[in-house]
Amino acid sequence: MLNKVPEVTATFWVIKILSTTVGETGADYLAVHVGLGASLTAICMTGLLIAALLLQLNRRAYVPWIYWLTVVLVSIVGTQLTDLLTDKLEISLYVSTAVFACALAATFAVWFGVECTLSIRSIVTTRRELFYWTAILFTFALGTAAGDLATEALGLGFQLGVVAFGALIVAVALSYTIGANPVLTFWLAYILTRPLGASLGDLLSQSREYGGMGLGTIHTSIAFLTVIVGLVAWVTFEGDGARRAGPAQ
């Protein structure tokens, strides 16, 4: 089958960051404002994620709307995993961050041991895709835990969190331009965009008394989802146009 992951472009990173923000604000909206609670939200979103994953795995090539729907749902479920450990089980953010870091490292170790590559340019078998989505889930969970640890437990706050994680991503991008390993820099950036998006989501949605801008989770989620839908539609039409032009050329 063809590679099941999109090309890593500026649009890819924009949609990824927007997806992580929706994961943060969307999970908060469903759990708090809708009143589902963390446990029921996690159950419902996990069911939707499984359905989206089955749809994604059954495709033989990259389909933009299916892929990004799965990413958004993984973002919400990853957020809920961390929230359940922190709020329900009262596990320290230091511990959950370490646990998810170890789980991600173990996933990468097994993936590389079996496939001899961690490159997203070669997601061309179902087994590699399963490794890929497992890693993606743990990057979201780790990013959520690390982001909460930095902005809440360590007291950075939302504004400094956005600046700090944004600066780290810039540093990773600069290291890539001077010859750092592309696979390593991709996964580092992928992990860091999660706490960046979460900090951005909290900055926009949380009330002013908690250091946010007070836009609310529903308005922030709708605004970012609208942009995601627009970008995914644009990527889809652009891809369709390229495929139609290919035979003619």
From TrEMBL:
Record-annotated membrane-spanning stretches: 30-55, 62-81, 93-118, 130-150, 162-192, 213-237
Domain of life the protein comes from: Bacteria
UniProt keyword terms in alphabetical order: Membrane, Transmembrane, Transmembrane helix
Stated name of the protein: Membrane-anchored protein
InterPro entries the UniProt entry points to: DUF347 (IPR007136)
